[in-house]
Amino acid sequence: MIQKKVSLYVSLIPVVVLIVLLSLNVWLFGDNTTSGSNQLSLLIAAAVAAVLGGLYGVKWKDMLNGAVKSISSAMGALIILLLIGSLAGTWMLSGIVPSMIFYGLEILNPTIFLFATCIVCAVVSLATGSSWSTIATIGIAMLGIGNALGLSNGLIGGAIISGAYFGDKMSPLSDTTNLAPAMAGTDLISHIRYMMFTTIPSITITLIIFLFIGLKMDNNSSGFSQVLEMQNALSSTYNISLWSLLVPVLVIFLIVKKVPAVPALFIGTIGGGLYAVFFQQDVIYQLTKYEIGNNLSYLKHAYISVMNAMTVEMSINTGNEGVNNLVSTGGMSGMLNTIWLIVCAMSFGGIMEVTGFLKTITNSLLRFVKSRKSLVLTTSGTCLFLNVTASDQYLAIVVPGRMFANSYKKYGLDPKNLSRTLEDTATVTSPLVPWNTCGATHAGVLGISTLIYLPYCFFNLISPIMTLIFAYFNIKIAKSAIADKVID
Questions:
Q1: What burial class does residue 321 get, using C-beta atoms within 10 Å of its C-beta: 0-12 exposed, 13-18 middle, 19+ buried?
Q2: Any idea where the domains of the chain sit in the sequence?
Q3: How far apart, in whole angstroms, are the C-alpha atoms of residue 475 and residue 216?
Q4: At what angle do helices 372-389 and 393-410 cross, to 10 degrees?
Q5: According to the model, what pLDDT value does residue 1 have?
Q6: What's the rounded Cα separation, in Å, for the pair 257 and 118?
Q7: Which of 71, 204, 298, 367 yields a CA-CA distance of 20 to 30 A from 344?
Q8: Where are the alpha helices (DSSP H) in 149-224?
Q9: How far, in Å, CA of 131 to CA of 337, rounded?
Q10: Main-chain dihedrals φ then ψ at residue 360, nearest 5 degrees
Q11: Residues in contact with 277: Cβ distance below 8 Å, sequence separation at least 6, in sequence order
């Protein structure tokens, strides 16, 4: 182990290197930073930490073992991510997600447009697990409709992003929703359940605000042709049916019955594949007939389609480019960038932990922590700081997650308190920072400046406040086994 006392300045060197590299990545690669540049930056920062650790007497073998141990602790999350990729693929192939999108679009009403927009984006994002895809497809359609109704771009953008990030945050298909519990040391299902306590009030307040604003709108139906086009594209390609929702209902039932995430997701994946085989024959033939010819039996077509949907990228032609982007998936392979990021992040965290650098930084930050309340406040502030400085929501989850995991145990708090705080702050505030990858991407996709839509992203603004209110008033703060020994 370490031989010399480590100063805070030395401990911060790898972090500073990481922040500089990440900032450079955002400048040069834009929203493509998670495709490799951020992962390599984490490894470079880990190498800097290793060199400094060697100078302070830490053996390379110990640092390597620390990185391996850190990666091993995330293996459960990595397996779940692969399963989620396969589930997303079969649910898209089977028409489950397209049906959710189709019926979500049905609730649009001109007099409650902002309210409905927020709900539609929430439903689609919850079904797909991606706020980015939702904003780039349904969001653009909603923007066109809102413009036709005479609403300001800021209001429309706020409704779109609020709904999309609610769905992203609560969806078991979302990478950030899997990343947060992995960093905190809890499981996916407990994390989602625990987030409901702060997230449901936040989205409820948001919807009330949008409803109040929207009730002042004129009943103007122009502009809804875009939605009808999307619905027609979905219904002409898929066999849209409410029966398809039985599969996600089954998964929800299993989760409620506390079935572990891996078997629940696996059952959902198989259920989606079987539904596709029996009810989406046209889609299956579309995906296979040009690749393998028409001489194979239907079961062979179906087997190939389902396996591809579970494992690799799948594109379905609906005749509508926006819908095509929405219903395309990457299967297990689509999760590899996130898995790559987690492995590199855990390597960085493991070396920082073994060298004692992480402990030094944490102890410095913990000088501001005098209670459980201030621990949550410090965590939240660190997430915000990294969203602004590192310009990446993943790092705003990973770094504080690794830094504060032991502190939550020390203060007698269950790890799901940490995972909830990470999502309540890091995930939802990322689109509010103009130079963050999320903020820059959404501003470019929607054509709305980040600072224009920021004041109307009520959900994103309320969520961090809600988690601090819960902490301050000790509402739904789960204690660990040693909680009685800790003074609040």
A1: exposed
A2: 8-72+335-483
A3: 35
A4: 160
A5: 46
A6: 30
A7: 367
A8: 153-170, 175-184, 188-214
A9: 17
A10: -65, -45
A11: 284, 302, 306
Torsion region of 439: left, alpha or beta (phi above 0 gives left; psi -120 to 50 gives alpha): alpha
The SS3 assignment for 349 reads: helix
Alpha helices in 355-457 (DSSP H): 357-365, 372-389, 393-410, 415-422, 428-429, 437-446, 450-453
Q: Is 314 helix (H, G, I), strand (E, B) or coil?
A: strand
Q: Which residue in this structure is represented by tokens 């947060």?
A: 180
Give residue 475's Cα distance to chain centre.
Answer: 25
SS3 329: strand
CA dist 221 and 149 (Å) reads 8
- Residue appearing with tokens 């450079």: 24
Q: Are 51 and 352 in contact (CB under 8 A)?
A: no
**How far apart, in Å, do the first and last CA atoms of the chain sit?**
33
Please, what's the b/e burial string for 48-61 (b: 16 or more CB within 10 A of its CB; e: otherwise)? bbbebbeebebeee
Pick from 463, 467, 471, 465: nearest CA to 431: 463
Task: Compute how many other C-beta atoms are within 10 angstroms of the C-beta atom of residue 115.
Answer: 24
Q: Along the chain (488 residues), what's the average pLDDT of each consecutive run of 10 residues?
A: 71 88 80 76 92 91 89 76 83 86 71 88 84 77 70 91 94 87 87 93 96 74 69 90 88 74 86 94 80 66 91 87 79 82 80 84 76 87 78 80 85 91 92 78 78 93 94 82 54
Cβ-Cβ contacts under 8 Å for 417 (sequence gap 6 or more): 194, 376, 408, 477, 478
